[in-house]
Amino acid sequence: MKLALPTALARKLTALGLCAAATLASPFTTLPAAAAAAAPGAELLITVTPHDGGAYSTRLTCDPDGGLHPNPPAACRVLRAVDGYVENLNVDPGPCPLIWDPVDVEVNGRWYDMPVEFAAEFPNGCAMRRKLGPVV
């Protein structure tokens, strides 16, 4: 014996089943997309430490450009030009005074999926700015 449900009841049960399946499946399909949209393409912590004091740190994000950095668009632009390899920057090559006033710079974080670990001592602020430009 075959049991036949009225057509309207069958449609309601089918719709209810589809809604339940969609509700249960939605967290598994939306979380990765939401997480990917929330994470910036690059996230860097930049620390500048002059040997005579006055150290500062700032956070830079790229894609979207932002963070606490004073000029994210310019910093991200020069970093994009070297694919995030901070050591390859040479933004404004040229002479600097021969004054020994050392400055340490550290840049740590990630450039998209690549870890970034850069540390250098510059003879003075001029040499640092010529090499790293708007990043510092």
Topology of this structure?
Layout: H1 7-38, E1 42-50, E2 56-62, E3 66-67, H2 72-81, E4 103-111, E5 114-122, H3 125-132
Antiparallel strand pairs: 1-2, 1-4, 2-3, 4-5
Structural features, described:
The protein is α+β, with helices and mostly antiparallel strands and 136 residues long. It folds into two domains: 38 residues; 96 residues, Subtilisin Inhibitor (2-Layer Sandwich), CATH 3.30.350. Helix content is 37%, strand content 26%. It is built from three helices and five strands. It has a five-stranded antiparallel sheet. About 14% of the residues have low confidence.
Task: Give a summary of the structure in a few sentences.
It is found in: Secreted. With 136 residues, the chain is α+β, with helices and mostly antiparallel strands.
Secondary-structure element pattern, one letter each: HEEEHEEH
Low-confidence stretches: 13-31
Number of helices, counting only DSSP H or I runs of 4 residues or more: 3
Shape: globular
CATH homologous superfamily annotation of the largest domain: Subtilisin inhibitor-like
> Structural class from helices and strands?
alpha+beta
CATH first level of the largest domain: Alpha Beta
Termini separation comes to: 81 Å
Approximate strand percentage: 25-35%
